Give the backbone structure.
Amino acid sequence: MLTAASLAGCKSKNRRRDRTPTLGDLNPPRDAPDWESRFNVAFDDSYTPTSLNLQGRAPNDVLDQQLFQARLGHAALVLLVRVEQVWGRGRYQGRQKQFVEVLVGETLLGSLPKDAPDRLLVEIDSIDELPGALKGEIMLLFVRWDSESEPPYHHHLMPADDDVVALIKAMVEHAKAEGVLDKQGEETGGKRGKGKRGKRGQNEGGKRKAGKKKKDKRGGGPVEPVDDSNPGGSSGTPILFESSGGDPGAGDGEYTPPSVQPDDSTGLQDLGGEPKPEEPASGDAPP
C-alpha cells in the first residue's frame, strides 16, 4: 500500500525540498480552456470514500469505472496527496462547509503551476460528514480548471490504491510513447486542453472582450440528486442517470450502464481500445 514515506519520496521528484510548506491554492494557466457544464458530474468537488473496483461488473462498479475514465481523460492535473487535516462543518473559520487540508506529492499527469503551494485547502461538497479517519490517507486529486469559479478549479478526490495508481502511470507512459503527451505530461501540440478559439477573453479579431463578473460561489457539484440509499456508494457522487440501456435491477447481461465516455480531449481515454470501424463511403451501404 502507498504510505506517507512513499508520498515523501514522491515530493522530492516534483517539489523543492528546501521550501517551507505553504498553504495556498492552485491558479490556472492563462490559456486554460473554459469550463463546460458537461464536466459537472466527473469533477463534482466531492470525494469517493470507497476504493475503485477495476474488475467489478456490478452497475455501480461500471459507473465508477466510467467516471474514473472521464476524470483521467479530462483532468488538467492528477496529483497524489496526503490528507493532513479534516475540517467538518463550522470547524474552519466558522464556515458551514467541509474542507480537507492536503499535502501535495507526486504529479501523475499534467504540470503543476510554478507558484503552486505545498499544501491545499480543498472544499468537499458532500451530504455526509467527512470522517476523521481520512487524516493520513493517501488519495488521488483530479483537477480541471475553471477560472470563473472560486477557487479557480473543480476536482474529485478518491482513494489512491496501488492498482489504480499503477494504471494511471501506465496509461500516461503509453500516451507519451504514442505521442499523445509530451515528456512533461502535457498534450502535444500546445498546452493541455487548449482550444482553437485563442486566448481567454479575446474575440476572433484578437481584441479584448468585456470582462465577465466572476462567480461568487462554486458552480460545480452534481447536476442530479445524490442517491445515498446505498451505503457502499460514492458519497457526493451522482449514482443514477437516465438510460435506455435496461433496468438496473435486471439480471446479469441485461443491464447496459449509462455511458459517460469522455470525448477526444486528451486521447488517454482511447488508448488500448479497439479501433473504430471505417464508415462505408456514401452510396455504398452495407448489404
